[in-house]
Amino acid sequence: MENRDFIFFVGPSLVAMFICIAIPLIFVLEQSFFVNKKVYKEVEVESCVAGFTGQICSVEMQSKPQLDEKGEIITQKEFVGLESYVRLINFDAVKKAFWQQNFIELENVKFFSALRFTVTFCLITLPFVIILGLVIALTVNNLLSSLKGPIIFVSLLPFIITPIIGALSIRWLFVGDGIITAFLEWLTNSNISMFSNSWTLELMMILYRIWHVCPFAFIVFYAGLQTINKEMLESAIVDGANRYHRLRFIIIPHLMPLIVFVSLIHLMDSYRVFEEIIAFSSDAYVISLQWLTYDFLRLDDTGNRYISSASASSILTMIGISILLYPLIKKTWNDYREGKL
Amino acid sequence: MKLKSIIAILTATFISTSVWGGHHACDYKNKEELTMLSNSYDAWKAVTNAMASCGNFTATLDKDFQQKHSDALAANPSLYDIVGISNGSITPLINAGTVRPLDDLVKKYGSQLLPNQLIKIDGKIMAIAMSVNNQHMMYREDIFSKLGISEPKTWSDVLSAAEKIKASGMVEYPYGGAFKSGWNIAEEFVNMYLGNGGSFFGSGNAPAINNAMGVKSLETLKKLTAYMDPEYLASDSTYAQKQMQQEKIAMGVLWATRAAAMDNAEESKVVGKIKMVSAPMGDARPASSLWWDGIAIAKNISDAEAEAAFQVIMEGIDKEMVKANNDKAVWLIDGYKAGKSAMGAKMTADNGAVPYPSGTRMGAMHGALGTVVPDFLTGKKSAKETLAAIEDAYIAKAKEQGLM
């Protein structure tokens, strides 16, 4: 393709990405260095609230945000540099952990406990998704063609279900008095509570995510399998290659770009693990980086949200994702440079 | 065939809704298009249904209404005319000045209101209270009398009763409560800490919970969890209520708004078996806090709309509505007869429970408690470490807001 044509094809998408992704990211980065403080004034407030039998009146000093003449709360933008980041990762705890060579203690800092879970979640689910997706694709590929349609449809179902709905159904099946828990309790004559341990919660989240994403890997690999050169496979059989050899030396190398593609997409998706935390109400035991950002953005009882901390948390999430994806992107780039793609 | 059945369903729905709406007669014919946002429990359903009978009124009932109401009322014109609030959720609206003073309207149309219903902030009536709410003890009278346990008055009574009930094996778990991590568990701590006589802040909005009362409050909570369903950190008010209704637990400190549901034969197996008493005593007062629910009117709407809104509200919280829904809440409205289900709330208040200390800084404190208290219950941190971490989390929030 001519360079000029290439620019024409890619241009609109680049413009859209700049407007919808790059610009907001710059704003988020900026917000993480500033805080918007309200201007409070100590005022004496006399208030009467409803008691049970009569009113309870009291006078107390309260911090009240000041309003401007248009009736809007006055805020002051203040540069804080890296303060939001330092607070988020609790720099003192990190220093202490380094001095004492005791990194388990870091689990006590919300950010590191979220990071620990998010990274293990990504790395554990990835191989299962790839391998199971490949196994299903190979199996379906060898089926009678009359069976293929229905089997493909059924295999895709987990991916079609909205993540939050899927996670909620898992919760209702496994919660204290859910059907499956009740059955297992009856079977083993013991008391099972899947939602009261971090390891059981993490296990459920990992299994759920593998179940949910496998169909995606499967359908991509299955499409890839349709493009394999049949003659090459046949001549390999003539040369005495067994099933394993054909898989190892023909099919997998042929599918390699797709495997990289699925890995990239899966890592990006699973690094933003969120629905499972909400649906399983697991935040007392297990949290993810995305949940941490959400928690800062959620309004508290008095209508405050913490934009600077939330921005710092999303920037760190983005840096994390880039580090995790770096090897795969580098590999793709090298392949491209060497003309393999 | 198909069309016929659709028509049949539509007619049935129409009849049932008109019956629903018809039980309350409205004396005021509303001509303004009015909207309302509020919480979603039974009391709100009763009030908004009564208001709907005046016509041209739609209500949005949402248990996460606090996530919307500040921004919705800050818009001009406001996205809702009327908003259902409590002593906690009114704070951001007062701070931003997005609800209007009601003094004139009360004078003109509010003759039915009792003095106790007028919520005054800085001398102006900013909301009309309709009910009070607190968390109090509910227990299975049948189990307690069978085991010869007397009414639990303090937390050590509760714990020793729990031990006996556990030994008897009469229910799956002796104790239940709304311990869900986040807002609920924070509220449990607030109640315990107030019960032990604690106050949350020192001078200059600095936190002041890292003390013996804080440690004791945490430890009492942890001792209780030994008698609870191990999944307590996912258990909200509704879940705890169902545990009680389904005979899974023998006692719990639950919201007064949940009391009437215990005697609702349609969903409860324990009709007539639950006794409502005061929240157990801490070192200073009952471990509970007083809340009120009420209604306010948005500032950014026309005066004509506000006038119509106020009259519709008066219809929603009149004698007739209370008569039809007497046990759905502890109403403050004229005509309410405190029944059996209100006894727990009343005893808690009589024993000296204090109002929830709402305010801007308390919002940040409540949030910090909600994320850090679970670390103590799950054993990640010691009591002292937990209290220090709560103070750190609060300070971070307060600094970002400009409170410190």
Task: Give the arrangement of secondary structure elements.
The complex is a heterodimer of chains A (341) and B (404).
Chain A: H1 3-33, E1 34-38, E2 40-50, E3 55-65, E4 75-79, H2 83-89, H3 91-100, H4 110-141, H5 145-160, H6 163-174, H7 179-188, H8 198-225, H9 230-238, H10 243-271, H11 275-279, H12 289-297, H13 307-337
Antiparallel strand pairs in A: 1-4, 2-3
Helix pairs in contact in A: 1-13, 2-13, 4-8, 4-10, 5-8, 6-8, 8-10, 10-13, 12-13
Chain B: H1 2-22, E1 34-38, H2 42-52, E2 57-61, H3 66-74, E3 82-86, H4 91-96, H5 103-109, E4 118-121, E5 124-133, E6 135-140, H6 141-146, H7 155-168, E7 173-177, H8 183-195, H9 212-225, H10 237-245, E8 249-255, E9 274-277, E10 289-297, H11 303-316, H12 319-324, E11 330-331, H13 343-350, E12 354-355, H14 360-377, H15 383-401
Parallel strand pairs in B: 1-2, 1-3, 7-8, 10-12
Antiparallel strand pairs in B: 3-10, 4-5, 5-10, 5-11, 6-8, 6-9
In brief, what are we looking at here?
The complex is a heterodimer of chains A (about 350) and B (about 400). Chain A is mainly alpha-helical and about 350 residues long.
